[in-house]
Amino acid sequence: MDTHAQAEASAARPVLEGPDIARVLTRIAHEIVERAKGADDVVLLGIPTRGVFLAQRLAAKLEQITERRIPCGSLDITMYRDDLRMHPPRALARTEIPGDGIDGRLVVLVDDVLFSGRTIRAALDALNDIGRPRAVQLAVLVDRGHRELPIRADYVGKNLPTSLRETVKVQLAEEDGRDTVLLGAKPAAQGGHQH
Amino acid sequence: MSKILIRGAKVLGGEPQDVLIDGETIAEVGTGLSAEGAEVVEAGGKVLLPGLVDLHTHLREPGREDSETVLTGTRAAASGGYTAVFAMANTFPVADTAGVVEQVWRLGREHGYCDVRPIGAVTVGLQGRKLAELGAMHESAAGVTVFSDDGKCVDDAVIMRRALEYVKAFGGVVAQHAQEPRLTEGAQMNEGVVSAELGLGGWPAVAEESIIARDVLLADHVGSRVHICHLSTAGSVEIVRWAKSRGIQVTAEVTPHHLLLTDELVRTYNPVYKVNPPLRTERDVHALREALADGTIDIVATDHAPHPHEDKDCEWAAAAMGMVGLETALSVVQETMVDTGLLDWAGVADRMSFKPAQIGQATGHGRPVSAGEPANLTLVDTAYRGPVDPAGFASRSRNTPYEGRELPGRVTHTWLRGKATLVDGKLT
Amino acid sequence: MQRHLISAADLTRDDAVLILDTAEEMARVADRPIKKLPTLRGRTVVNLFFEDSTRTRISFEAAEKRLSADVINFSAKGSSVSKGESLKDTAQTLEAMGVDAVVIRHSASGAPYRLATSGWIDAVVINAGDGTHQHPTQSLLDAFTLRRRLIGPDAGLGQDLSGKRVTIVGDVLHSRVARSNVDLLHTLGAEVTLVAPPTLLPVGVETWPCEVSYDLDAALPKCDAVMMLRVQRERMNAAFFPTEREYSRRYGLDADRMAKLPEHAIVMHPGPMVRGMEITAEVADSGRCTAVEQVANGVSIRMAVLYLLLGGNEPAVTHSRTEEK
């Protein structure tokens, strides 16, 4: 993180702290078990980068609850984005589909922030090229609104009404050294991990 | 004819003097000459040189009038300060008969911008097998004294020996394009570090040097004189230096581009830098400059080689070899030889007028700037410095490697036997 | 990255690693039921081949199609080029049809460079081999093969080839593959040794960032990979070497020589192989020879290059993994 980003982060206001994040993930895990009737055929696919860590944490919680192994992987949506032509090409992240595949299963996509919905649209396209799930559901840590596509989340950690002039920044221990969700003002320059 | 007074010109770079032209000749050289009845040209400290003589020009007519004609080529010559050019024989048809050389000579006379001295081919069709009618070309109206297969090397040692011997009968000279053909099959550029990286066929220095070595030994053996065209390598300089020290009758020329440019430029793959012989290395450039300064290389010759745009606007391998040079030669020589302190303006007059006229026996050219001499003169603004703009060339072709490059010196006036061919940088 | 891919020498270490890492992800697409990505939908790529090379053309075409680009194949044979149309005219004609990228193969060294720099066209230019100059995607796929085999597909991510020793054997003089590999492998930190008869090494090779040797047997025990270059029989007639037999005895790779390689070392060949000349059938068909793997890796590398040059609004930047939504 550069000093510029640090300055922003310090100006931003935390809306979820470490214990809050752990609590909402536990709740989402229980909701998945409940709605998926025991989560027999659930496959968790995290969207890189932070969605993957959230998926792994959810999988661990589901395994505690169900005492079974929960398949968990990652789904990189870079090549399916609809804004590719608006930026330089991005480095690709890993798509890792669990061994038994996704055909006929309940795939739960996991991401950190739900915003325009375009990422999820791309993820649905990517899934289409990989297999045919029985159903696809979506779990997000934060839903900040402002949808641009008819997409909604099945499991939401926190609904966070925001203005378009604000940014939502998720930090996770695996990537950023600590767990927090920050609400801040939009910086003049574009970049970083703000949502 | 009227009188012209050139006032305050540095004759051969010396103290400012006045030069009075009366008709076709120089009437007087001195200070405070009377301007009465004369048109006055204020030289204002410009350098006055004898009209330049180019021993190596391609005028392309007949056959390739799309790239140059005798008219456009001699206009380019006048723009560059030349009053005589030797036109190479590789036209279509080849200048290997009295008919072709007379045609070229006559066109030059008719246009009147610059004397054209045709060069005759050594062998029929430049094929290197059978001697052309050298005597007939000499006896024609064109009075050919220089013979060359330029563009191709007279590589057969026996043919070269015979040619060297044969022209002795009428005092001719053979100008050799030194390029061993087998060593340069598929050659695209100087063979060395750059060609290795670029993957372009290498043109080894030894292909030039081995022919020069052979030919100076042949000239020595048969007691003839030989002229070496566009010498381009440090090794060639050493061979010529050795030959001269032995008393062998050899003269040599260097082109302006070989005095300035190196094969590093080929990294651009821009065919404007494709030329025969190829651009060599920094080390060669310095050896050539020193050799021109110490007289090992006798003259500067342009190897003015016009090509139409499409022959250069393509990939390297498909491009034609050659550069135009008449209109930039003096600037490049000032940049590389005068401004570096290697040669003074008297030296430039020697290398670009006196000596080439002497080698080519161009009567009336390459004479001192003094009373009674033909008024073949050129006036140079040596203080000028600016970028080369090919759009302003008089030549029909624009294939210059200097586009946009800042060079010193600008020819403002040229007089051919008292008649102005260039005034204030504009052709008459 | 630069806008075009003309020479392996133009790639920085980070550019090259980014391409290899991207190719690693592309390789995984080949294992999926639908081997296709929508990334270059609506982009048109022309394969402009002035020189026959079915292998390279097919590899590029497969890569382009897997990325959903529209593909136009243009072969100089039987076209207006054989009637004297120039490279410039051909390129401008294609661009007028709305081509976004030109993959060019040409027998003249520097033709892709001319195409990219002369202002004739605006399209992205990718060099698919020019004369005896460069073949950058070949060197990238070779580096990719080396990294996968010597370090591992996953362990290799983000890694270069520091400390790996690669011996390149054969007709270096006429080889664009050798030139590209010397440049790229050096950039990636590998130590390269060229082995060839002196007649098949260019004057000036001493300035290249590699070692040069005339002795294959001395080089083999010290290397992690040996790359055999194709030697054309025509070279024999131009006196580059006396006979085929003498060449293969001194510079060919047979089973005895292969046995001198360290246990882990691999044998590479850019293809097409001249069996019996630079490589024996026994070596070519052995498990240590990666020739077939190199072909598969070629598609992944070309997908990566196409994505990084054409996938966005400008060439890829090495550092960013931005995640705006």
Please provide a written account of the structure.
The complex is a heterotrimer of chains A (195), B (428) and C (325). Chain A is α/β, with parallel strands linked by helices and 195 residues long. Helices cover 31% and strands 25% of the residues of chain A. Chain A has one domain: Rossmann fold, CATH 3.40.50. Chain A has five helices and eight strands; from the N terminus they run αβαβαββαβββαβ. In chain A, helix 2 crosses helix 3 (50-66). The mean pLDDT of chain A is 90. Chain B contains eleven helices and 19 strands. Chain B has helices at residues 70-79, 98-111, 134-139, 157-166, 193-198, 205-222, 234-245, 256-260, 282-294, 329-338, 345-360, and strands at residues 3-11, 16-22, 25-30, 38-42, 47-50, 52-57, 82-87, 115-118, 146-147, 173-176, 189-190, 202-203, 226-228, 250-254, 299-300, 377-387, 406-416, 419-423, 426-427. The two termini of chain B are 16 Å apart. The mean pLDDT of chain B is 97. Mean pLDDT of chain C is 92; it is low at 319-325. Chain C has two domains: 8-135 and 298-310, Rossmann fold (3-Layer(aba) Sandwich); 137-294, Rossmann fold (3-Layer(aba) Sandwich), CATH 3.40.50. Chain C is 36% helix and 14% strand. In chain C, strands 7-6-5-8-9 form a five-stranded parallel sheet, covered by helices on one side. At the A-C interface, helix 4 of A face helix 1 and helix 12 of C.
Task: List the SSEs and their pairings.
The complex is a heterotrimer of chains A (195), B (428) and C (325).
Chain A: H1 3-11, E1 13-17, H2 18-35, E2 42-46, H3 50-66, E3 72-74, E4 106-114, H4 118-130, E5 135-143, E6 155-159, E7 166-171, H5 173-176, E8 180-185
Parallel strand pairs in A: 2-3, 2-4, 4-5, 5-6
Antiparallel strand pairs in A: 1-8, 7-8
Helix pairs in contact in A: 2-3
Chain B: E1 3-11, E2 16-22, E3 25-30, E4 38-42, E5 47-50, E6 52-57, H1 70-79, E7 82-87, H2 98-111, E8 115-118, H3 134-139, E9 146-147, H4 157-166, E10 173-176, E11 189-190, H5 193-198, E12 202-203, H6 205-222, E13 226-228, H7 234-245, E14 250-254, H8 256-260, H9 282-294, E15 299-300, H10 329-338, H11 345-360, E16 377-387, E17 406-416, E18 419-423, E19 426-427
Parallel strand pairs in B: 1-4, 1-5, 6-7, 7-8, 9-10, 10-13, 11-12, 13-14, 14-15
Antiparallel strand pairs in B: 1-2, 2-3, 5-16, 16-17, 17-18, 18-19
Helix pairs in contact in B: 4-6, 6-7, 7-9
Chain C: H1 13-29, E1 44-49, H2 54-66, E2 70-75, H3 87-96, E3 101-106, H4 111-117, E4 124-130, H5 136-150, E5 165-169, H6 176-187, E6 191-195, E7 211-213, H7 216-219, E8 225-228, H8 234-237, H9 244-251, H10 255-258, E9 266-268, H11 281-284, H12 291-310
Parallel strand pairs in C: 1-2, 1-3, 3-4, 5-6, 5-8, 6-7, 8-9
Helix pairs in contact in C: 1-5, 1-12, 2-12, 5-6, 5-12
